[in-house]
């Protein structure tokens, strides 16, 4: 493949003269390039492969081999008890010795739940091992904006790939070091790295994509995310790699697509908008566009990019505080944040981390529960690919509203079928499984992908990093709260826990219906005009 740096400059020797600051009525029309080129597809696939797959992989990596890793944590704790005593009879606390040194039967999920309930210290360590990955995601957003401003999108992504490699190494060496603290710390570092990719890649894709393809290409990170979940669930089967001997290597396999991405990005350009925004590198931006579009006719798109930059010259890169101080930007921020809240308060995060447990509670065997989880993520992948086709055809708003209605109905019937199962109705357990699959069908239609598209396309260059930073904080924060509280709440409320999710879906769906405009087929400049008109009207 030809490197973007080998592209010849546009032969006409076009000079980009500064444009006057444009008003909403003087916006450059949307560029005419709308086709998908091999170079554009190559770059988008690279970006999503190296960031989406590791994210999905690590979200569910501890799900299938849960019993194996909990047993390993117990063995580490047991060994530490032995280090301070000759044997259990000389231990200061014999009951603590029994709690930590009695291994769990690998085939018994029920016994695992009982053991975790009986050993609060072990339960806390296991919860931290799962949940602090999300804390790393929250931490990442506070540095991502600064790195993007200083180094650009491409270099920032490569930096966080290096961080991901370091964090993975720490996690994998925890077995040799007999330290569950290393496993937890390594997952926090991995969370920081993949969380940054979760911010940077949607921005990158939105900036390099033609208007007609921005929605479809914007769903690819979610597609790769789901593919990562499928790969992790498959490799986590006990007879594949989810066993005592191979789980450290299993935690490292997500590095394969990361290394492929790092190698491939050397042939690819920085985002043309970033080249303009940081150093006004007109020639480099022109070369990047020619490479992406595989056409020398990029003058119209260059003019549109420079027009946006010139309008923002008098301003500066907005901070998060500056975003909240501006009433117009604050109103646009709500349009991104509410769908992001819906993504996780719908119950999806709990299903991701506890799917095997939920299927076991529905009456499936432990191994069949893993197979059911695998089928669940495969269904999710299919629906996300469907979303890729529909998002630019039917629109963001229509898909979001359809998802809200479907999720609402699915959760309502799930509460009913679980309650019937508890009352002994034969076959109702399979109704619960059907409801979970229906939930995934409607959630995958838009709630997993469209919120990220909105965050990247509703803001100008100067506000986009801060906006995506806050959207990511909301994403990781709601996920962290959901996965930490779900085991506690479901122990008290049982199946009625899902009524909480129903309440959130009603609220976020109502907001989407009344407040969210349709943005399909609109350039970023046209979207700003639309938002400004709506804002002025509602003043």
Automatic annotation (TrEMBL):
> Which InterPro entries does the entry mention?
GLUT, MFS_dom, MFS_sugar_transport-like, MFS_trans_sf, Sugar/inositol_transpt, Sugar_transporter_CS
- The answer to whether UniProt assigns keyword Transmembrane helix to this entry is yes
For whether the record's keyword set contains Transport, the answer is: yes
One GO term in the molecular function aspect is: hexose transmembrane transporter activity
Spell out the SUPFAM superfamilies in the cross-references.
MFS general substrate transporter
Cell location: Membrane
Q: Where is the Major facilitator superfamily (MFS) profile domain?
A: 44-520
**One Pfam family it belongs to:** Sugar_tr
Where does it primarily localize?
membrane
GO CC terms, sorted:
membrane
Give me the segments passing through the membrane.
Answer: 40-60, 125-148, 157-177, 183-205, 217-241, 247-268, 332-358, 370-391, 398-418, 430-454, 466-490, 496-516
| Membrane topology, from the record | Multi-pass membrane protein
Keyword terms, alphabetized:
Membrane, Sugar transport, Transmembrane, Transmembrane helix, Transport
Give the similarity note: Belongs to the major facilitator superfamily. Sugar transporter (TC 2.A.1.1) family.
Q: Which PANTHER family match?
A: FACILITATED GLUCOSE TRANSPORTER PROTEIN 1, SOLUTE CARRIER FAMILY 2
Record's protein name: Solute carrier family 2, facilitated glucose transporter member 1
Q: Name its species.
A: Hypsibius exemplaris (Freshwater tardigrade)
């Amino acid at each position: 493949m030809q490197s973007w740096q080998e592209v010849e400059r546009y032969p006409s020797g076009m000079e980009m003269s500064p444009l006057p600051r444009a008003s909403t009525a003087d916006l450059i029309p949307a560029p005419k390039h709308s086709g998908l080129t091999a170079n554009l597809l190559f770059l988008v696939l690279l970006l999503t492969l190296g960031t989406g797959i590791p994210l999905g992989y690590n979200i569910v990596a501890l799900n299938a081999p849960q019993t194996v890793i909990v047993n390993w944590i117990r063995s580490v704790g047991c060994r530490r008890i032995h280090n301070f005593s000759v044997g259990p009879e000389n231990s200061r606390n014999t009951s603590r010795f029994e709690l930590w040194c009695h291994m769990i039967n690998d085939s018994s999920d029920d016994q695992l739940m009982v053991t975790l309930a009986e050993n609060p210290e072990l339960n806390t360590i296991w919860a931290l091992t799962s949940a602090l990955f999300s804390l790393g995601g929250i931490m990442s957003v506070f540095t991502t904006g600064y790195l993007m401003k200083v180094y650009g999108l491409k270099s920032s992504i490569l930096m966080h790939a290096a961080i991901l490699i370091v964090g993975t190494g720490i996690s994998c060496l925890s077995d040799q070091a007999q330290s569950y603290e290393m496993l937890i710390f390594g997952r926090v570092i991995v969370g920081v790295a993949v969380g940054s990719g979760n911010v940077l890649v949607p921005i990158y894709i939105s900036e390099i994509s033609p208007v007609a393809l921005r929605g479809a290409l914007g769903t690819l990170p979610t597609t790769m995310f789901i593919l990562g979940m499928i790969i992790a669930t498959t490799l986590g089967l006990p007879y594949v790699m989810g066993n005592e001997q191979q789980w450290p290597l299993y935690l490292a396999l997500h590095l394969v697509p990361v290394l492929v991405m790092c190698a491939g990005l050397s042939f690819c350009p920085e985002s043309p908008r970033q080249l303009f925004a940081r150093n006004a590198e007109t020639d480099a931006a022109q070369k990047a566009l020619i490479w992406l579009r595989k056409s020398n006719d990029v003058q119209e798109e260059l003019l549109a990019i420079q027009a946006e930059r010139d309008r923002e010259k008098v301003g500066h890169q907005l901070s998060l505080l500056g975003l909240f101080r501006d009433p117009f930007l604050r109103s646009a921020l709500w349009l991104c944040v509410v769908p992001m809240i819906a993504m996780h308060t719908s119950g999806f995060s709990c299903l991701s981390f506890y799917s095997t447990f939920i299927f076991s509670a529905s009456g499936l065997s432990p191994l069949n529960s893993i197979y059911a989880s695998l089928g669940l993520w495969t269904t999710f992948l299919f629906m996300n690919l469907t979303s890729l086709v529909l998002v630019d055809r039917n629109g963001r708003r229509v898909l979001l509203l359809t998802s809200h209605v479907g999720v609402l109905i699915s959760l309502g019937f799930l509460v009913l079928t679980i309650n019937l199962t508890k009352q002994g109705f034969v076959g109702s357990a399979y109704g619960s499984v059907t409801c979970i699959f229906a939930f995934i069908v409607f959630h995958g239609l838009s709630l997993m992908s469209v919120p990220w598209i909105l965050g990247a396309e509703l803001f100008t260059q100067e506000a986009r990093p801060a906006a995506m930073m806050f959207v990511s904080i909301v994403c990781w924060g709601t996920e962290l709260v959901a996965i930490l509280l779900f085991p506690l709440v479901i122990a008290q409320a049982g199946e009625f826990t899902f009524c909480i999710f129903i309440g959130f879906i009603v609220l976020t769906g109502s907001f989407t219906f009344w407040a969210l405009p349709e943005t399909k087929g609109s350039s970023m400049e046209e979207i700003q005009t639309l938002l400004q008109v709506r804002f002025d009207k509602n003043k």
